Amino acid sequence: MGDRVTDVDVIWAENQVRAYKEVYPLYEIYAGILLEILNNAIRTLAPLGIVQSRAKSIASFASKIWRKKDESLNPLINFTDLCGARVITNDLLEVKAVSDYILNHFLVDWENSVDIRERLKPTEFGYRSVHFIVMFKPGIFPNPLVPIEIPLELFGKKAEIQVRTFLEHSFADFSHRVAYKRHYIMPELWQREIGKLAAFLEEADCQLLRVQKGLLHYLSSYSAYMKEDEIKRELKILYNVLLHDPENATLAHEAARLAFELGDWDETIRILSPFKSSNSIPAVLLLGITLCNKYESDKKSVFFLKDRI
Question: pTM for the full model?
């Protein structure tokens, strides 16, 4: 946009803002629906994650149309972030899980979606979120897990969903405040310092992931190094805890793993049967393995054929 602001420019801007005000309540509904859907998703994919959503404010829209005027004369159609949501997770594994959920449940506008990790050069560090531009996919919602009706007016309208770790969010929030939308060129000294900070946080995310994978590998087999009396004692403790949270699939899986280690197929099946149709993949897999072990000698058994996974 040129330096000179004409009366025609002002009238154009006023018309764009007036048009956005008319549809703004619909984008608020959009943001509320995204919040509900994504909160439901992270219950199993990122239990300690945070979901934020918003419709772009009138002031933010009014500001952006001036900054992007040379690129878009029809912002209501061309802007893809009039509704936005953000999912903040503990680690990169959860980023992957949430991203897969988005790919499976939404239509993705790949031309406008960006994985910053792929865009950065090997020697670059920086703002590293995954940004999806999405639309509602017909036939997905409502469903048993997300019983929410999508208003017909929202189909075809785009929203932006960002997925990032807490460390990525911390860096993105900081760099946004000190650099983005600022009317100055940042000195190279501080650009380098921000780059070093980004590299440090990226390595921290990767180290956390390595530690987590190592611990998960250890925990998956730690019972093999326990004595039988120790396993039984731990199992009794878990039984007691489960009494207070009987729908906790993670606790049930942990208890079932100990029963499995004792070779008690019946007890393992008893613990896991309530979770047969759950979203807990570890519980369902262990149940399937246990059923195979129990009926290994009689694979034509009606029980094996009925209960196999």
Answer: 0.66
